[in-house]
């Protein structure tokens, strides 16, 4: 459309007829100013008065880790194989798997030159933007090799991880053969068999029926050369329960070995880039020394030795749970950043009577929907950093204790291991649930634009959903953690004192469970984090004591309550860590102090006190007189207080645009231009005719019904045929 200049237009005006003189406008196309969301976001950033790097160090735990994370962001962004692009949202399953394979290949080059810690962090970051790639590598490094390390001897680990080079993703590629078509969470119920043949000194691996088919095995369909197979050890007709065995699947030409049947399980809700498969074994023979024998040993003549520390064999599962809890933080950071940047730039309706529409972020409902998730993400950041550190120390102490046969260290490590099963299970289940809800709510808060594939919500939600059911179904993990908490409280009531355990706060259970006075009685108590922490401890204690009599009769009847206890345990852990880090690492006069204090309060009011107010009230931990204030008034006050800081708090995550990977979530805030540019790049306007256009044209241009019926029903035909 041509724009007529003011000068040329004025020459064409007829002076003799002033009534027909057109109104001169400066812009014939539009006389209104276009939206300027980038300006709004820049104005929000002006409220940030702290050092973003310093806040990032608070979140990550220390300066060294923060610096390494930022360098890895930069490295990923610059790597043409690893970087993200908008058109990747349009990939078919075949194209996505090709991209994933290329990225795995590229990542294998980094593992050869980086420290294990640095590579794990690179992988953790990549897993957020490409979960399919992440899980395919983690299955090999985190499940296959960790299972060998946790269940095998040092020589077995050295052979498979180092000599065979699977530790650097070379020569062989492992998968994790635990889940069966008929058994998932109940690992002890697995029915694949490993029968010892004393004559040939081999185990015979068999799938006895369809229910024992290995199922959902990541990497099995196309990638894996070997699997660690969970199978029932049968020696001299005695079933010794489920043990682990390394079973080769493919030869050096990547062809299936005799007796191995494998297939792709097909379309899934998400993670289409993962080649999940099924495996069936038919009389597959493996050498006796392919059984992992760190704990259980089978001699040449068929003698079976079961050492007392065999319960530690499942410690290999912890790394995945710890990792998923940490992933919840980074996913939360990514999507709260997108939603809050959009909320600043997007204007809708007018609530103040001004000439401009109102920013979404200034609507109270919008604040109540998003700000609590931002606060939860901050709590998850510090909590999962602590969890990772404790997990690393646990593995180190275990290796040291076993190597030196240090009984005192082993005793402490076993206690710490029991705590880690509770903590990792509670955090993994609670935070992956929360992250799933966070993605969904942030997507809805972005309205129709949140539904666009180019803003990452849809694909990520589908890819994320599996986190709530694999590596421990969340409800099963919650029930397990809750059961341990109840048993622990029972032991404390019987006089046992917990030592070297993160559950030591339960040592106060005898006193807390009998307390008559509410811990939180007046509004002012809500501004005391330590008091809120004590309130959670009191609730856990009272709740557990209340459930003990029922547990003596049936655990199943109190399964829902056990899950609630695990959630409370998660939040106690997060808040305890948040309080400790704030008090010990942020000075009273630091500009970070007030934003973090408000964030902490918003977290424990909206994620702990309000959701569990029925339990807090039932057990008399919170006074009924302030219930309404906790649920309705105080959260609104905190949202108002934190409002000026939210963009600074999200910027402090320091996630670059290539990692955010959302056109409405970019740092510059120019949501509309960014959006349109990405759409044009991925879907060229030149391609205005669809590949399926022939079907549409056939529909639109079809002949009349009379013509298609050869005019046999026409009036003319009727006249001729009726004679």
In short:
The protein is an alpha+beta fold and 723 residues long. Helices cover 52% and strands 8% of the residues. It has three domains: 65-148, no CATH class; 172-301, Butyryl-CoA Dehydrogenase, subunit A, domain 2; 321-651, Butyryl-CoA Dehydrogenase, subunit A, domain 3 (Up-down Bundle), CATH 1.20.140.
Fraction of residues in helices?
Answer: 40-55%
Q: Please indicate the count of domains.
A: 3
Can you say what the CATH homologous superfamily of the largest domain is? Butyryl-CoA Dehydrogenase, subunit A, domain 3
Number of helices: 25
Mean pLDDT across all residues, rounded? 92
Classify the fold: give the CATH topology of the largest domain. Answer: Butyryl-CoA Dehydrogenase, subunit A, domain 3
**Strand proportion:** 5-15%
Overall 3D form: globular
Structural class: alpha+beta
Oligomer: single chain
Number of strands: 13
Radius of gyration: 31 Å
Q: Which architecture of the largest domain would the CATH scheme give at its second level?
A: Up-down Bundle
What does this structure look like?
52% of the residues lie in helices and 8% in strands. The chain has 723 residues and is α+β, with helices and mostly antiparallel strands. The protein has three domains: 65-148, no CATH class; 172-301, Beta Barrel (Butyryl-CoA Dehydrogenase, subunit A, domain 2), CATH 2.40.110; 321-651, Butyryl-CoA Dehydrogenase, subunit A, domain 3 (Up-down Bundle), CATH 1.20.140.10. The strands form four sheets. Strands 1, 2, 3, 5, 6 and 9 form a six-stranded mixed β-sheet that branches. The protein has a three-stranded antiparallel β-sheet with strand order 4-8-7, with no helix packed on it. Strands 10-11 form a two-stranded antiparallel sheet. A hairpin with a 4-residue loop joins strand 2 (193-197) and strand 3. Helix 3 packs across helix 4 (63-78). The chain is globular. The protein starts with 5 loop residues before the first helix and ends with a helix. Its cofactor is FAD. Keywords: FAD, Fatty acid metabolism, Flavoprotein, Lipid metabolism, Oxidoreductase, Peroxisome. Belongs to the acyl-CoA oxidase family.
